[in-house]
């Protein structure tokens, strides 16, 4: 029995190494399945919770155009959550189970959404920086080894680039405006820069699961690799806007052909992950409230469908 | 609390007239009408489709991937089913 299992694992790894995608009904190691369920559901939860800091600004958007754009973006996030929950469900978990884990605090979501969105410029930073970081994380996932996850990510990435551009446009508009508007943009950048760098996760040395995930080709780049790419992308963009990233150690390194940058405050990172961020309770509270207050809608829809089916049968 | 989830539906979309419906993903809905409306909202927000099919997932029957090798084996050694198997003289046109 054990040799059979070993054989299956070897065959599985051989398929991964040959870049053959794994599909839902294929044999896979339990740990692969568990890792994927955890990662995909976390990702889905992030999309869902990610709607909250932006939803707050829909009624406060400065113009009808901005309001329509933001509404459309938030609707996309809901869609992304749905694609991802569906992908996770192909692995044998259920939507109810995943939501229960989110609501009980057992499952995590991206810590970035535990920071408050204090001004309209924050909507710019969320699009430009947060979605920019998300895109860097997500583009390689379009080639991840699990078929349904990769296909969901292709759809997500297609839609996500509008999110980043609309954020950059908000920043551009503010930076071209009155001094007080530019100041607002700079303040938002000051607040979002470091939390965004944290989105790539702990340092490689402190990320024990990375090696296995790379081996299974779930992940294609390490956390530190992606963080460096992000800094290299963003520093020139901030310069273009006439803004300064809040890290005095940022400096172009000719030898490495990359920017040197300072150390993330890892204590803050772990603290927010553990639930002690500024908005952890608010976000989860809002999520649970929406779910509970929507229960009657879900029940009524089921009852209505049942009634209609009975009528049709009679 | 809900005692059960809405059923799962598979969604197929025709991206434009003349093409076939293609599987794009799945979603939960209480009934077919809601499944089609949700599919519109989730999968066609950017004009990706002109027609939607939904099928409750429990009605899909699938071949077993564990048997794939044996199952598809009959097609494996029949190269003569492909036109490239045959040598056609260079002077012969329109074949």
From TrEMBL, chain A:
GO BP field: phenylacetate catabolic process
Cellular component terms (Gene Ontology): cytosol
UniProt xrefs under Gene3D superfamilies: 1.20.1260.10
Transmembrane annotation, as ranges: none
InterPro entries the record matches: Aromatic_CoA_ox/epox (IPR052703), Ferritin-like (IPR012347), Ferritin-like_SF (IPR009078), PaaA (IPR011881), PaaA_PaaC (IPR007814)
GO molecular function: phenylacetyl-CoA 1,2-epoxidase activity
Protein name, as recorded: Ring-1,2-phenylacetyl-CoA epoxidase subunit PaaA
From TrEMBL, chain B:
Matching InterPro entries: PaaB, PaaB_sf
Pfam families: PaaB
NCBIfam families membership: PA_CoA_Oxy2
Protein name according to UniProt: Ring-1,2-phenylacetyl-CoA epoxidase subunit PaaB
Organism: Hymenobacter daecheongensis DSM 21074
Organism classification: Bacteria, Pseudomonadati, Bacteroidota, Cytophagia, Cytophagales
